[in-house]
Amino acid sequence: LVALGGWGASMARPLLKIQRYFRRKPVRFFSFILLYLTAGSLVFLHSGFVGDSSTGENGGRDTMVASGIGNRVASSDGRGVGMMGRVLKDTRRPTPRRYGPPWMKGAGGKDWEGRGVDYTSSWNRALKGRNAKDLDDGRAKYIGCYIDDTAKRALRGVSFFDYKKMTVFRCQDNCAERGYLYSGLEFGAECYCGHKIQAPNASESECIMQCKGDKGNLCGGANRLSIYRLELSQESARHYGSAIFKGCFHRPDNVTLALPISAVIQNMSVEKCVDMCTEKELSLAVLAGDRCLCGFPTPHFSLHEMEDEDLCLHRCHGEEFESCGNDEYFVVYQTQVQDNRCMDRRFLPTRSKQLIALASFPGAGNTWARHLIELATGFYTGSYYFDGSLYNKGFKGERDHWRSGRTICIKTHESGKKEIEAFDASIVMIRNPYKALMAEFNRKYGGHIGFASQAHWRGKEWPEFVKNYAPWWASHTLDWLRYGRNVHVVHFEELKRELFSKLKDMVLFLDLEVAEDRLLCVEGQKDGKFKRSGLRKLDYDPYTPEMRTSIDELVMTVDASLKKRNMAGVPKEYRPTPR
């Protein structure tokens, strides 16, 4: 006992010293307590994150199949769309990428669990025995075998070689991304691009070398090219070096006013005119015979009325295979010079009392529409979420709270009565569901301008994604039509085709004055930094007949709902083709 008492006394002395120390220094005592609590909180949060990460990358949210996901929309106004209980959301700023199909959460907020169908085997059977020459999926058409001379190439654009992994589709994609009309493969591993085939045909028996990356397809031969004509998407552009070919246009009424810089060039070529206008820091290089003119798009020369290219056929003196136009019909190229007339952007000078939504299903072109609106109006757009990558790319309104009133409109993918009624008006973007689903799938697995891998397309992810997201494509539009107070519908495809007029309508809907010069500037910089260029990256149709039947029904439901509200129905390309 005496020993224990001595031990207790020895332990008490250090504690007594600590007590006296903190009594003399109370600030240090409270600092010590605060440090202790902070350390404990960090340990607790770390354990929480470790627990969350164990659920996997998707957290199960995007791979769930809701019970009854195939429920059909029973009425034309969408009231019959099955909703498996909406997730209630508060009015505080939500966490990033919170949106999702409303039925993907069950009662009590628990995730639904379902089983997806694996279509990989059926796709593999469909692809067996198909050669790239036989494919007719809208991406490219085989032209034939052509002679290729190393001194005078048949295709005179860019080229690249890969002696291990070259495939027909890889070559096509690379040429399409640069806006070329033709792609050609040679020696099993060489890819050439061009706008014209400048060589004679050869026998098909001379293009028999297998592709290095795909033994099932042929990639030309020795000094022989297997050439494909690329069916470029509408937004793809033809290039001459770094310049973009805009087309053939009739001479403007007042050439001096429309194109203030001009010069006569000996041995005229596209390259010489483009170089001259680039040095003058003007965005248009215009060829008129032996004259080169430079300027910007203006109401005097808007580039809205393109003529037949045959009217501009006049061989350049300094370039054998290019056209230089003439005195009446001009060949126009867009240089790499940036048109700064629409680049200034700022927050609204006074806080807006109206909240205007820019609403869309994911993959329907919301980010692109924000880019266009910001350039056309000069004001930042906001977001219901926060995406750091978009902020870093120049969308400075991304950081503002969506109710701040400092932005011209607010991006949202939300649907549901409560969320929609928070806005005073809305621009609703609608896109062909077949394209929107693929775009969102690419974004989900490849980022804003990347592509999902073949493993994702062929695995269980794609069928489950379609099952979850296709009904949401319809319910999103139907909800905004039903609960929105003042709705302006914009179809993605029509905005691409008629950019000037459709964007003008959007600016007017935002209650702003239209600056025509600014809209013309936007046309020259319409793509921004979030565009997937070139051909689509699949060599087969990812939609099964069952998927198409379900999506076609949803398309017709949305079409009927639009017409019921005296709006134009969905564009023709959305509608199912007769089988």
From TrEMBL:
The keyword Transmembrane applies. Residues 139-231, 242-336 form the WSC domain. It comes from the Eukaryota. SMART domains: WSC (SM00321). The keyword Transmembrane applies. Gene3D superfamilies: P-loop containing nucleotide triphosphate hydrolases. The chain crosses the membrane at residues 29-49. InterPro entries: P-loop_NTPase, Sialate-O-sulfotransferase, WSC_carb-bd. Coiled coil: none annotated. Keywords: Membrane, Repeat, Transmembrane, Transmembrane helix. Belongs to the WSCD family. This is WSC domain-containing protein. It comes from Oncorhynchus tshawytscha (Chinook salmon).
